[in-house]
Amino acid sequence: MSDVKLLKGNEVIAEAAIRCGCDGYFGYPITPQSEVMETLMERAPWNTTGMVVLQAESEVAAINMVYGGACCGKKVMTSSSSPGVSLKQEGISYLCGAELPCLIVNVQRGGPGLGTIQPSQADYFQTVKGGGHGDYKLIVLAPNSVQEMNDFVDLGFELSFKYRVPAMILSDGMIGQMMEKVTLSPKKPRRTEEEIIKEDGDWATTGKTADREQNVITSLALKAEEQEATNLRLQAKYKEIQENEVRYETYKADDAEYLLVAFGSCSRICSKTVDTAREDGIKLGMIRPITLFPFPTKQIKEFAKQVKGFMTVEMNAGQMVEDVRLAVNGEKPVEFYGRFGGIIPSPEEIRVALEKQLFNK
Amino acid sequence: MDVKEIIAKGDLVYEKTKVLTDKEMHYCPGCTHGTVHKAIAEVIEEMGIQEKTIGISPVGCSVFAYEYLHIDWQQAAHGRAPALATATKRLMPEKYVFTYQGDGDIASIGCAEAIHACNRGENILMIFINNGIYGMTGGQMAPTTLDGMKTATSPTGRTVEQNGYTLDLTKMIAPLPGVCYVARHSADTAAATRKLKRALKKGFENSMKNKGTSFVEVISTCNSGWKMSPVAANEWMRENMFPVFPLGTIKDE
Ligand SMILES: Cc1ncc(C[n+]2csc(CCOP(=O)(O)OP(=O)(O)O)c2C)c(N)n1
Ligand code: SF4
Ligand SMILES: [Mg+2]
């Protein structure tokens, strides 16, 4: 049977989870991502791989179920959309403080408040700058296709376990709802109890056997020196992640005089703008950050030597643009164009914005 | 000199359970938490389940329970222990999983997680330390604070007009079909603690029988928060709390 299928982004998250050997999914329904749990319930993986799927009473409970599962060294995940992800922030902060691996998917919708169920990228700040309390970072992957929704489930778990830092797939209602051809990942078995003990038995709560000390998962340190030691360890990890895990993609950027910067669904739209500009002889290119943390700061800084100016395009009021400006550090103009509230910008209006804000300035 | 050098092996009638660590407890003298910790540790030892037991500690004075019981522990956010326990038990069904929570933790901020874990009939043991006050944060009012009781946030005494009624969470939980065992005990005398231990044992045993949730409340003292001597606190508890929260087995199916 071919593993190439036509699926919705949200459905693919579920398929990929089962295939990558995920142990548990805990969620609470919210548009536009409910298909993730619906697909899992329909596929009933507890009968095949033994994966646990549970509808929790709230996003608060769901993220804390993820916390419990992660404590056991299990591959666990949750998904939600913006208002639900806000509720998860306490749990996310605890997961970071306790240095636990897990995967969180945010299929963003417009806010603030109950907002709209239409796509948005307005949770960039919340995700990248730390939506919960304390100094922490998530590993943030921003897919721009259904294929990447598939690929980033496995990648997210892999990176998360490698560094024991939670990973977030920052998607949006457009990627979650759209159908595309996707090559599903090969099936991987779930880790056995023995494998977990062998690989993560030095920290996971798998039961205190006579041959080892007790394992305690906690984010509590009453002594300031202890807490600072935790913070320093976390910062060292984030530095390592910044050095080793930056992922980005460029499009027609080699000879570009102007560069668009866009992530996720906006990058799909921007590639159209690049194509039409090129037809008109304008040397426009694009850089797409794939990891939002770690951010491709160095790469963008490098482009500042080459191009006359940048413009970020986002479905928000201008969030990632701050990181681009930090990277460019005043060397070249960095403009911003955005639509929000669930409105998706068109390639044409991006072109108009480029003309007005960058080309003719 | 080690105690074993003084007492010959054959004469030894009582020994501290090895499931309790040798760390000095941070609890105030007279606090019920320490007694209940010991009861749990002894039950774990007697059942021989130290290697298979995962504890979930709360936010409250007993946040550090992991310092004293020599088993694997997860430290939960305030009120969320039942959610952690849910996932842990479902992902590792062969383990004995229990939560340990204060009244603020379980009956206030974590009320939803507690009720839903019970309603799903999670195969866990939930231990509820009801001292009628927020011990850790300095003696503020809890949902379980008795009417008229003075606390830091009800300095002239709790009133129905201002705060509503004293919450009996255990009574709310008992009718849920997901719950197989509900009992309310104390730990103020040796006899009471022995009864508590039997209840805890039953709860642990139930969790391996796929019968649903076991829920054991311990009516407790917080002599510091109540601003009483340990002896006076125990007397006050018997006089004032036992009538509102009567002891006994409420459900056993
Ligand atoms: C989200 C959150 N809110 C508030 C607190 C502060 N806090 C710590 S312990 C506690 C109350 C604990 O009372 P209880 O559960 O009755 O436990 P006790 O100390 O009495 O055993 C509170 C409000 C916190 N740590 N986290
Ligand atoms: S404050 Fe109260 S609950 Fe906390 S240790 Fe002291 S007596 Fe026990
Ligand atoms: Mg209390």
UniProtKB/TrEMBL annotation, chain A:
Record keywords, A-Z: Oxidoreductase
Gene Ontology MF annotations: oxidoreductase activity
Domain Pyruvate flavodoxin/ferredoxin oxidoreductase pyrimidine binding, residue spans: 15-208
Record bears the keyword Oxidoreductase: yes
Pyruvate:ferredoxin oxidoreductase core domain sequence ranges: 256-350
Highest taxon of source: Bacteria
Any Pfam family hit: PFOR_II
UniProt key word Transferase: no
NCBIfam families (UniProt xref): PRK07119.1
Protein name as it appears in the record: 2-oxoglutarate ferredoxin oxidoreductase subunit alpha
Organism: Balneicella halophila
Source lineage: Bacteria, Pseudomonadati, Bacteroidota, Bacteroidia, Bacteroidales
Automatic annotation (TrEMBL), chain B:
InterPro entries linked: 2-oxoacid:Fd_oxidoreductase, THDP-binding, TPP_enzyme_TPP-bd
One family name in Pfam for this protein: TPP_enzyme_C
Keyword Cell membrane: no
GO function terms (MF aspect): oxidoreductase activity, acting on the aldehyde or oxo group of donors, iron-sulfur protein as acceptor; thiamine pyrophosphate binding
Keyword terms: Oxidoreductase
Keyword Oxidoreductase: yes
One example of a Gene Ontology biological process annotation: cellular respiration
UniProt domain Thiamine pyrophosphate enzyme TPP-binding: residue ranges: 69-218
Protein name stated in the entry: 2-oxoglutarate ferredoxin oxidoreductase subunit beta
The organism of origin for this protein: Balneicella halophila
Organism phylogeny: Bacteria, Pseudomonadati, Bacteroidota, Bacteroidia, Bacteroidales
